[in-house]
Amino acid sequence: MQNPITIHDITDLYVIVDDHFLKKTGGVGRPSALTDSEMITIPVWCTALLRSKTIKDIYEFIRIYHCNDFSSLPDYSSFVRHCNRLNPILAKFLQGSLQTDSKIQFVDSTMLPVCRDVRANSHKVAKEVAAFGKNHQGWHYGFKLHATVNENGQLCSFCFTPANIHDAQTLPFLIRGRLKRIIVGDGGYNASVMRKRIYKENNSFVLAYPHPKQKKKLINYWQKILLRARPKVECVFDYLKNHLCLVTSFPRSVNGYFFNYLRNLPAYQFKEPERSLKIIIDP
Length: 283
Prior knowledge:
Blueprint lengths: L9 H12 L14 H15 L4 H11 L10 H9 L2 H10 L7 E10 L17 E5 L2 E12 L5 E8 L8 H4 L6 E5 L6 H11 L1 E5 L12 H8 L3 H12 L10 H16 L14
Parallel strand pairs: 1-5, 5-6
Antiparallel strand pairs: 1-3, 2-3, 3-4
Helix pairs in contact: 1-2, 2-3, 2-10, 5-10
């Protein structure tokens, strides 16, 4: 998507979802009480407006305050089952809102723990896909969100991996196409082999701090400015984790975890640009 979109009413979001992102296809069997467009509108709107933590909170809010807008709201168990089927459609919906044509992008990753470390050995819900990973804050058990954002803090690309995947290994999945871009990251993205591969395959330049064990290099003034602005991607992660509800331990299935992740990212993307960031250039 070329231009960012903000939403002011639940009807505005529904129109965007129904008209621009989702293709209506005929299904097999009895139709659901709510369409996929309505089912995507409900969690994204509640997450952006109320910062709802659980599907139960979303359901109760819609049942009490939007019963006229969704007159055919099903019972809670049917609502949960429909939510768990939405992950592929939610991913396509989010993909359509990404600012993929941004010339300057800031890349980083953040941990998404599924439980506390002391409970990792007894955790069973995401046991087959979660893993232990370590960053500057210590050990975590769960997943990792890799993302790029532009100078305004809007998402450009994203992917999820187990927590033990190195940041630089996800660059080919985050940077696609041959569009000329500058990718700004921390020292974890400074591997020369990966930087050469990205430049050769994707025509993009990766700018990163040198690793502490690498030799120091001189940089240009524009490189200094971009490296100073790199923490804006960490500000995005802070908003997602502390102001929205990206990190959770409530789901009871892997689909539930990713439904929570995929409803929070569009909610952030379509909120009012209160989190818009600017690059400050000092002489």
